[in-house]
Amino acid sequence: MKDFVHLHLHSCYSVGDAMGSVREYLDLAVADGMKGMALTDHRTLAGIPELFSHTTFINKNRNKEDFFKPIVGCELNVTSDEFQDSTNNGVNTKRYNLTVLAKNQTGYRNLVKLVNESDKHYIMTQPTVTKKHLEQYHEGIIVLSGCLGGEIPREIINDDIECAKSVILYYKNIFGDDFYLELMRHKTSNNDATLANQDIFPLQQKVNDVLIRLSKECGVKLVATNDCHFPTGEDADDHDTLLCKTLGKSKQDSNRMKYTRQEWLKSQEEMNDLFSDIPEAIDNTMEIWNKCELYEINRKPELPNVSVPTGYKDADDYLAFLTHDGATRIYGTLIPETVADRIDFELDTIKKKGYANYFLFWHDVIRAVREELNLWIGAGRSSSCGSIVNYCLGITKIDPLKYDLLFTRFINPERTVLPDIDIDVEDGGQEEVFAYIRKKYGEDCCANIISYSNNKAGNIIDGKNVHVCGLIVSKNPTSDYVPLERIPTNEDKELVFVSQYDGFYVEDMGVVKVDILNYDFLKKMRAVVMAVEETHNIHIDIDNIPINDPETLELFQSANTDNVLLFSSDGMQFLLKKMHPENFNDLVLLNTLYRPGLMDWIPEVIQRKNRKKAVGYEIPDMERILGESYGLIVYQEQVMQLSQMIAGFSDAEADCFRKDLGKKQRIKEWKERFIKGGLNNGHDKPTLKKVWKELYTMGLYAFNKSHIVAYTFMSYQMAYLKAHYPYEFSTIISVS
């Protein structure tokens, strides 16, 4: 049996007429011993990141010479006619299917450009490229003649053999030996006589006979393919159901569209049997496989262009000025040594990573949100509150030193992933912020992000939506980085450009992902502050209220927390009375514990906090890290700090450790390294084993302290307003 790879395959991303996740197809191909697979979804590259991601997993324990090879492809619509404008020019213009593969990174980027060009022009609601586009972006591209919807098969069906031959010679002239004639054989079984399309196979036979002859006349090679639309033969009925749903037809409709029920991922043996009389067509799948290189589609982030004022050497110099200027406003002219050291450490790391423009971008956006758009924003999200540079720039409102938050939880010096800086904005402000970014950094350098609606465990995609809070921003036009398409917004159905790659993958494509979330509580809190200022003629600096205000703590202790963010549920109010929080850190701790995995420890914490149960530490120095949580490991930052203090892990190792621990990855390896490091630091093995058990038990559920501190602070702000201005709070909150 000859080796064979599939080169014409449609996954669930070919929305409406194909099913099966990319991973499902890959697993079937690997199980059959195939050496690679192409993904050629209709007019989209949406499944390509998943193709590469799962292939990386497949190749993890393989030698390089045995790597499974992913092949990037797309089935494009192509027309010979020129478009007169960017609208739906000429509904009568003919368009044809064409299978296009990228054989290297240049080909991949050209294929992205072709997909983006196609979305500028529609024929009968379908995005389409011209042959001139193919000529312009031909480098690194392999072209197959396509299914029966291709131009060459259609001319053969219409008995215009000379025209078919001229089209073959046209493509050969552009692509040379990288142009192939596709042969398909979807022979319907007698068992499927009433359910399957009986007309396709005779047409394929007619087309194949002519293609075999023209192959010799024109000097163009043949290649065997199977138009895959569902994973296995057993999926034919489900695929038929999907098709009926898409077209709004019933299965009993005699005039409805049908497939041949042969469109599954056939095995190498099945394909060898189908084309036993044309073995070179099987061989040429491997010739194409050999032509296609192993390459990466991921790119390092290319940060948005941020202008640096005259007088500063570069972005790093300007960032240092802004940071120190902010520090002076916050801490005074005599900046504490601990603050200065932390600033120097962070700025040095940011410079080494080349991230200065990223921080300047966010500084500019936050400044505009406050000063130009006059919107309220939250205290910060995720691990961004672990950065003192963010705090000094006004990006976040939390002093990381005050709450022992770690910069290395935000930026791991040894990882290349751009850190997340996301913001909450008062309800209704998100689109204003997006509009500012588009205007400032260029409409063509911004795009929304797609969100796919999945069904049946991801095997079927029901639809496409605009991501509720995501925007991508790029240094150059976004179309240089990712494939785009236009889809209607959820609200007004206006068409907007979105990245075909979803939010999980798009950040790895050289663009910056910006998440801005609308939050109603910020709008309500602002309304309360404005009402208080108007009624009492005072100014409330809500970001600098006393953090352990007695009246506010009393409100929490009495559980008078209706309409207070995160503390208004019956369960939380019950626990507030039990715990009797005495300071802000107690509130942070309770907020952290009130979630799956950690909730079972709440009674233990309450007993320890109320001194009904002693708090002990296996190693005395652990108290410095765990004292605020009464000896329990509840924060990811504590996991990192303990691994450094006890086992000598570096900053980068500590971050990787907490991440792997949360995912239950490499546990045996990390345990060995922890014990070994602890022994080297003078700790005995029994003690280390006890500490490891605590780390493992609690570390699985440990939460991001930076995030929870920020959200608890916003809860505290609301509680402060309720405690001191109950009339304005209750009136406005109840009305809104």
Question: Would you give an account of this structure?
Answer:
This protein is of the alpha/beta class and 736 residues long. Helices cover 45% and strands 12% of the residues. It has 29 helices and 15 strands. Strands 1, 2, 3, 6, 7, 8 and 9 form a seven-stranded mixed sheet that branches. Strands 10-15-12-11-14-13 form a six-stranded mixed sheet. Helix 7 links the parallel strand 8 (179-183) and strand 9 (221-224). Residues 84-92 have low confidence and may be disordered.
Keywords:
736 residues; alpha/beta; 7-stranded mixed beta sheet; 6-stranded mixed beta sheet; 29 helices
Describe the secondary-structure layout.
Layout: H1 22-31, E1 36-39, H2 48-59, E2 69-79, E3 96-102, H3 105-118, E4 122-123, E5 126-127, E6 129-130, H4 131-136, E7 141-144, H5 151-157, H6 161-175, E8 179-183, H7 200-218, E9 221-224, H8 236-247, H9 268-274, H10 279-291, H11 315-331, H12 337-353, H13 356-371, H14 388-393, H15 407-410, E10 423-426, H16 430-441, E11 446-455, E12 460-473, E13 484-488, E14 495-499, H17 503-506, E15 512-519, H18 520-536, H19 550-557, H20 570-579, H21 584-593, H22 602-609, H23 622-626, H24 636-647, H25 651-663, H26 667-680, H27 685-699, H28 705-724, H29 726-735
Parallel strand pairs: 1-2, 2-6, 7-8, 8-9, 10-15, 11-14
Antiparallel strand pairs: 2-3, 3-7, 4-5, 11-12, 12-15, 13-14
Helix pairs in contact: 1-2, 5-6, 5-7, 11-12, 11-13, 18-29, 19-28, 21-28, 24-25, 26-27, 28-29
